Structure formats: C-alpha cells, structure tokens
Amino acid sequence: MQFAIQYLRKDSVLHRMDAITKLVWVFVIGAYAFILGSPLLLGASVVLVILTGAVLGGIPFAVFRGVSVYLGFLGLAVGIGQLIIRQGGAVLVPLPVVPITEQGLEWALRFAFRIMLISFASMVFIWTTDPRKLVLGLIHLGVPYRIGYGLFVALRFMPLLENEAEVIRQAIAVRGVAEVSGRREALRRYVMPLLVAAIRRSEDVAITMDSRAFGAYPTRTYVDPFRWTASGVALVLVYLVIAAVLIYVGAQMGGLFTRI
Amino acid sequence: MTEALVRPDPIIRFEHFSCGYVKGAPILRDINLEIFPGEFVFLVGQSGSGTSTLGCSLNGIIPFVQGWTEGSLTIAGVNVAGSRVAELATHVGVIFQDVDDQLTNLYARDEVMFGPENLMLPAAEVERRAWGALGFVGATDCAERFVFELSGGQKQKVVIAAVLAMEPEILFLDEPTANLDPRSSSEVFRFLTQLKRERKTLIITEYKMDELVSLADRMIVLADGGVVCDGSPREVIEQHGEELQERWGLWIPQAAELEIMLRQQKGWRAEPFPVHTAEAVKQYSGYRFAALPESITSSSSAVKSEALIRANDVTYRYSDGTTALSNVSIEVRAGEILAIVGPNGSGKTTLSKHFVGLLKPTLGKVVVFGKDTSNTSTRELTRRVGYVFQYPEHQFVKDSVEAEVRFSLQALGVEESEIGPRVQEVLAIFGLEGLEKRHPYSLSGGEKRRLSVATMVIMRPRVLLMDEPTFAQDRRNTERMMEAVLMATAADVDNLGSTIVLITHDMKLVADYATRVVAMHEGRVAFDGSPRQLFADRELLDTVNLEEPALFQIVRELREAGSPVSPHIASAVDFVASIDAMSIDGTGLSSVSR
User: Fold this and answer.
1) Distance in angstroms (rounded) separating the CA atoms of residues B516 and B302
2) What residues contact A62, with CB distance under 8 A and at least 6 apart?
3) Residue B443: per-residue pLDDT
4) Minimum distance, in Å, between the CA of residue B512 and any CA atom of chain A
5) B20 by DSSP, 3-state: which?
6) What is the pLDDT of residue B591?
C-alpha cells in the first residue's frame, strides 16, 4: 500500500502546480548540484529545498525526518567512498590505512550533499505530485496516451502485487519449503505463483481496459486537461536565479569545481 | 404463436455459435439462443461450464483479444465478428469477478470517467454520466478516494458505476457478489432490481440463487458447453430442480430444495411451486409443524472442551499504524467447527494468521498448543495447525498432484515407506485419483481447491484452518470438499472429531457445518456463540453486515406469521421432518406418522 501513497494528498502551492514545470524545477536543481562544487553551498541548498517543500508543499517536517535516515545513510555511504578514494592535501585525522585528508573530506561532503540535494528535490516532487497530473503532463508533451496510462496502471498495481507477494510468501512458508528443499528451491517456488498471479492480473487488466474502449481512438477526452501554471513558472525562475547566484558565489569562493 | 408476434427483435442472438480459447477445444458448442430487450437472465452452470466465456464473447473479448468463434453472434443488430471491442463496449458492459483487476485508475472518479473519456464524449457529457452512475450506485462520496482505499463493497459499486457510465443496453455480471459480504451483496441485488426497472437487459451468473430467482425473468442452465434448460426460473427449477442438484452439482434456492424434499418424501405438492423465501413462507404457513425430535434440539448443547488455540487480548497494528485487531480474545476448542465471519476488512484473516504465527500480536498473546507464538516459528506451529489459503495456487510448490501431496509428508520427515499409502489414501478421499501426474495448475477450480486442502489434511493437523474454502465453488465442489475434510480429519487423536476453523462469507456453509461462530466487526469480536443464536439476533446481524441464510429466514418469517415452527431447525432435513401435515384447514390434509 505504501508505494502509491508516497504521494501525499494535500492542498498547497506545490500540489496545485502543474507536474511538468515542477519536473523542470527538479532538473534545474539536478543541473546546478553538479555544477556547484562547494560543500557549504550544496548543504545550504539542501536546507533550501527542504524549506521549499515544507513551506510551499505543506510537507510536515516529520516526513522529511522519516526519509532523512535513508538519505543520510546514502550520503554517508557515498561520502565514505570518496573519503577513501580521494586522498590528498593535509592529513586531518591520521588513521592507519585510510587517513582522513583535507581533499578526502571535501569530496566526501560534496558528494554526500549532492546526493541528498537531488534526492530531497525528487522526494518533494513525488510527495506533492498526483500521478494523474504527471501522466496528463507527459501526454501533453506528446507521450502517446497508451504509454502514459501504462505508467498509471503500474502505479495502481504495484501495491496489489506487493501485497500478493507477501501472501504467497506466507502461503509457502506454511508448507515449509525452505526447511526441506533449501532456500534456492524456496525462491523458485515463490517466483512461480507470483508470475502466474502477475500474468493473470495483467490479462484481466488488459481485458477490462479493452472493454472500456481504451485505445479505440487516436486520442481521448480529458475531463481535467493539462494546464500550465504560473506558480510553476515562477518557481523555476526563482530557482534559476538562486542557481545563478550560488554558482557565482561558488566561483568567487574558489572555483566551481574545486575548493570551498 | 401470438407471443412471438408481440415480442420485439432479440437484442442478442446466438446462431450455431461455438467458441473457445484453444483451437479445437470449444468451451461453448453450437449455441442457439435469443435474448430480448429488457430481459433479466439468470445464467447458471457448474464451474467451468462456460458462463464466463459467454460474457467474454458478448463484448468481443473473444475473439478480438483471445480465442476463436464459429457461427454467428448478433448484438443490437451488430454482427460481433464484423465489429470492434470499442463499439461493442457501448452495447454491452461486462463486469467480471475480481474487482481489483477492474479498477485500473487511481481515483474512483477517474475510473468511472475512464470509459466515456475513451469514447471521446464531450467533457460535460462525461461528467454528467459519471456523476449519474456514481449517484445511482450510492458511491458519490467515494469519488475522490484512491480505489485501493475502498472496501470490497465500495470497489464493486465503483466498478458497476464505471460500466454504467458507458450506458450499455446490456449488462453481463459474472458472479458480482463472489467476494462480497452478505450485506454488500444485497446492495448489489438492489441495483439490479433498479436496472431491471430501467429496462436494461441483464445477464447474471451466480452460484447462490436465493436472491436472484425472484428478480430474474428467465433462467438458462449451461452444461457441457450447451444450453440444457431454458425457461422461467420457476419452470426450470420445478421441472429440473433435482437434476440441477444431482446431475449438474448446482445449488437451487432454499425454498425449492424444501419443496422438492416435501414432494419426494411426503408426496405433498405446493402450487405454484415456491422458488423464493417469501413464497415458501406463504405456502408453508398453512402446514402443521410438530415439535422436533429430541436428538435435533439437544445436539446444540456441546460441552466445552479443551482450548487448543487461545488468543488473549490481542491487538495487531500494521506497519503503517492501522489497527486491524483490537483486544481480541478467542479460543479454538478441540472437536469444534468454528466459523469466523464478518464483513470484508473486519480482521478475520488477520486473526487467523496469528494462529500459525504468520503474524505476531502487537499487544497481547496467542498460545497455540501451549506455545506462545511470539517465540515459536511458523514451521513449528504448522505441525499442529494446517492453514489452507484462499487461492490454492498460492500454496502449490511441486509439479504434479502426487508430488504436491507427498511433499507435505516429506516436509514432516515421515518415513518413505509410510508416505506412499498415506498419499494414496488422501488422494482417494479427496477424489483426486487418476490425476496423480497432472500439474497442479492444470486442474479445474474444484480440484485445485481439494488438492490444496489435501496437502494440509495429509499432515494430520490437530486444527485445520481454511480461508474462504467455498470461494468460486459450486455446490458439488463444496460438498465434496467438506465431506472429504470431515472424513479425513474425523480420526483425531482425542477422538473428539475434526477441529476446523472456517473463515468465510458463506452463511450457508456456516449454517450447514459450523458448531460455533465468531463474528468480527472492525477488528473486534462482536459475537461468539452458536450459528443459531447469531442468525436469531437481527440487530447484531445488522451491525456486523451479515444476513441470515434463506432457511433461517423462512423459519423466522413462518414464526412471525404465527406458525409454530421450531426455532431449533437448522437444516432442510429438520424442516421437512418437522412438518406432519400438509394443511390445517382440512383440504388435502394427509397426516403422517413418523
């Protein structure tokens, strides 16, 4: 059930915004996250994105806190990798095999913040975007509606299959396959009914959609058509300005790609 | 002859029509059938007799999406073979069994608008139709909700609304209430009544007939790929009732079952032949009822035996915080057949999963054969408690019927020399002989169900749990399965007989087999007592969204009408036994001494 619910239903500026300009906003952030090199400015950007989500999207801080654990861990993992790979400059902590060096720390922070910045922006997008609006936006941009709706159906059935997978796991656990035939066999036995269930469902869904005249005409009516929103354009413009300022400041502080 | 002149042209005409999924293996054979506008057709047949296939051919799924056809099928003057699925969709709306697979949008409102939008109707017209359809089924308040948040009954309403929004003249509903609790089922029957008034042509398949016989104008029985009976429900059931039961393995309405028994055993004929409960009450209120034999009234007072499973104050919360069970205390006692009933989402399955440790209580304790489930593995618990899941396919782990059953014993570590005879014995009891080499997935619905039960029963569990054992099963399959279960589990070590837990919506199953019922409602135990007590408590039935089975309804209404019928009657056999004269006014009175 959790999959599709990741979209948090609310009424806010971000929720009302059209999905396409909001997606452009995510791309703008993605782009400057890679241009900007300063860990300090990247860290500040993470805070800015969280504030944007909280203020304009009405997302409770508890929700941010919920994912922070995972994103923090991801950032940490990437950071430690960098710490080991990028050795150079003054040694800050003289550990035996991998001493923490000045350059190592800088790259660690840079990558950790980059990952977190992009992830948080994407999460804000997912939390505030009704999948219906995203599909309508994509279709508006020229994606054939049959493909657009494919995404819809996937979102709709992911939780169902997830649920079914759990039931099958339990049904097989009751029979004791893992204990008797080993884990590999158990996995094989688990995949088979799941596949059968998925195929049965996809057939049923195809039949249902066909019998509701899906795909009968090259286009279809949309009761709620896609509409560009001024707030979306404004958000993108504001972030372009922020990006320009940050990149300028970053450059002044010692180059876009290198030092603080 | 004159009737033919008055009748309009048929809206559906099958002429020498055959069809199937695999070339050379027809499901329907040489069907010749005419259905007229505004008719309400009740289509019945054993599982696998082709009722669903007929639905798929009506909206062109066969042959345009899968399968083949021969002969001709004309719908509203349109030849199906020369049409398209989209065009047919405006004539025929088909509602299949599984509601989840028929909800392809995220919001209920979008689901209902989906069809009209695909038809490229103007947006205003789409809205008019969608809100109209949602209003008709009483689901306007669901419009802005996610479809997966809806209850089973609400989902079914939205699916019906989605089809109605396409404004088809013909509606085909394939077991529309199979997954619904009794109350939601009644609601569906109410829409059907309304649609009938609006002169829609309706074709409905169902195993349970009591509600439908009074609504339908016509009853068509399919067997062996062809039409074997066709007429008004009264004609068909009066003339072929026994055949429907014995030969085709179908249920017939309770009223008709009683009448057939009375005609056979006592030679009394009520005219006209009663097919639904109200008619039975009317006809039998003139009959003279005797007190029941002692053996029947006393059988209900069972002695409390040892508790094999005990749930103490169990609360269960899902990871997302939803409370599925709150403070549930319940015992499963040796030798009883306990039915756990309640509306969809009331916590029945969640509770039963605690009995084999598949779920562990958030608060409280579950003790199974003296072991606390919170620190005992499922594997350990399933040595004593067998759990049969709702969908048999979910539990199949081998490639042949024999290996499937054999596996259960291998998993227990039973000696190889002992396995062979036990496998043969169980296969015989469950009517699976001769199918040993077949792949479990290739079996029929009834065989799959019996195999899934056999894999558990062969382990000689002390308690057998079955989740919706009668789901999508016809009468014959249900009876064969239950008989086999009772036979195979009768020889319990304590000689107390079978200990069985049934999780079910099927009130007939409860009435026929259960010795005790627990009714769940919103995660709590709302009732714990005998089936008779449950069915007698109208207020309770109302709160827990359940309905009494037809037999209990007949008995209650007879008593309300002043007939001295014993309230202890629990079966058709009891009912017939308790009547000792046909009428009290002397006409046709034939007193019988038993």
Assistant:
1) 10
2) none
3) 85
4) 27
5) strand
6) 39
**C-alpha neighbours within 13 Å on the C-beta side of residue A17:** 27
State whether A208 and B102 contact (CB < 8 Å): yes
Check if A191 contacts B (Cβ < 8 Å). no
How far apart (Å, rounded) are the C-alpha atoms in residues B359 and B353? 6
By the CB < 8 Å criterion, does B89 face chain A? yes
Q: What is the pLDDT of residues B128-148, one digit of tens each?
A: 999 999 999 989 999 999 888
State mean pLDDT over B210-227: 90
Task: Name the DSSP class of B223.
Answer: E
The 10s digit of each residue's pLDDT in A145-162 is 988 888 888 878 887 888
Q: Which residue has the higher pLDDT, B360 or B65?
A: B360
**Inter-chain touch A4–B393, beta carbons under 8 Å:** no
**A251 φ, ψ (degrees, to nearest 5):** -65, -40
Q: What is the pLDDT of residue B253?
A: 93
- Asked if pLDDT for residue B587 goes beyond 60, the answer is no
Tokens linked to B552: 């209990």
What would the two tokens of residue B79 be? 């030849």
Contact B339, B502 (CB under 8 A): yes
Q: Tell me how close the Cα of A234 comes to any Cα of chain B, in angstroms.
A: 29
Burial (Cβ within 10 Å: 0-12, 13-18, ≥19) of residue A81: middle
Strands B307-317 and B363-368: antiparallel
Instruction: Answer yes or no: are the C-beta atoms of B347 and B294 closer than 8 Å.
Output: no
Min Cα distance B433 → chain A (Å) is 22
For residue B492, count CB atoms less than 10 angstroms from its CB and return exposed for 0-12, middle for 13-18, buried for 19 or more: middle
In chain A, residues 199-258 whose CB comes closer than 8 Å to chain B: 201, 204-217, 219-223
How far, in Å, CA of B393 to CA of A195, rounded?
11
